[in-house]
């Protein structure tokens, strides 16, 4: 975490009700974190910074929270102390209050990007390189099934949105999310969003319900914002039964962990399948895992692109195609100079791309050696 930044808002701003102007309309702020009435953090340029903004007291913070929650048709109180919802402008809001929040009400707002990032933006930010962008575009157009993995705040949804932009215009795309964040520009996009239970505990529609329904909608592609539970089984079955080119994201720390997470989520479906059968489903369905990492300098980078090659005995086999070169060290400002480099291995999935008339130049996969560490 960096040192405290210049204040984004004074206590007077909060008292006068101009929090929206101070935070939500600041283009450099991507996330707002209210830790009780006296502590407000924001994220800008990938770094979390404390502000000197304050609410007057707990009552004023609760008043703001109640207004936000009621605006999206929800209620928050001691019997229902958690709310996760999407605001009308697309921003995501999470609220948790006492007795679950021990030190006062907590409010987190992840702002919605009115202008979604493009692949050119990701190249500019060094999230990926020209070579890897060409490769990933070919994989999407070649209808490969892929998982985007990474920890919280690593840019998985942003990357999923960019990759989805490569889907041809003539395809019917169904997107499924807990809170709608994807911004696909194609014309034939059908957007589905899950729904929590109402105050009486009825009416809940979960991601798995929507995945099952999507299969009856004649989709060419299914894009799931995040796989968290039993819907993983339905996704894998869809990928294995003609819905090639489907994509989703998974929370994990490494590409290999993504496979383990998929296994665990399939078991959450309640279907008693042997572990080997689950692994065969995963190995057969998935082609590619794209892993993102949030580095210590605040940047979000794709650090591994790995091919899922199949089964060997009881193990799913993988092969790294591109890996991030950490050995290039840091520059004078403490920013990573490394980038994705090819391992020099031509992936087996090239055969699938050829079936769709897509051929990549051998130069994309030429081996790039790791560089010696540069001292600051």
Layout of helices and strands:
Blueprint: H1 11-15, H2 19-24, E1 29-35, E2 40-44, E3 47-50, H3 58-71, E4 82-86, E5 92-96, E6 106-110, H4 119-124, H5 130-141, E7 146-150, H6 156-164, E8 173-177, E9 189-193, H7 207-214, E10 221-224, H8 231-239, E11 247-251, H9 255-267, H10 275-285, E12 288-294, E13 300-312, E14 315-324, E15 340-342, H11 350-355
Parallel strand pairs: 7-11, 7-12, 8-9, 8-10, 10-11
Antiparallel strand pairs: 1-2, 1-6, 2-3, 4-5, 5-6, 12-13, 13-14, 14-15
Task: Summarize this structure as a short list of keywords or feature phrases.
376 residues, alpha/beta, Beta-Lactamase, Rossmann fold, 2 domains, 9-stranded mixed beta sheet, 6-stranded antiparallel beta sheet, 23% strand, disordered N terminus
Mean of all residue-level pLDDT scores = 89
Order of helices and strands: HHEEEHEEEHHEHEEHEHEHHEEEEH
**Domain count:** 2
Helix content: 25-40%
- Helix count from the secondary structure assignment: 11
Radius of gyration, taken over Cα atoms and rounded to an integer in Å? 22 Å
**Would you identify the CATH H-level superfamily of the largest domain?**
P-loop containing nucleotide triphosphate hydrolases
Find the CATH topology of the largest domain. Answer: Rossmann fold
Low-confidence stretches: 1-13, 372-376
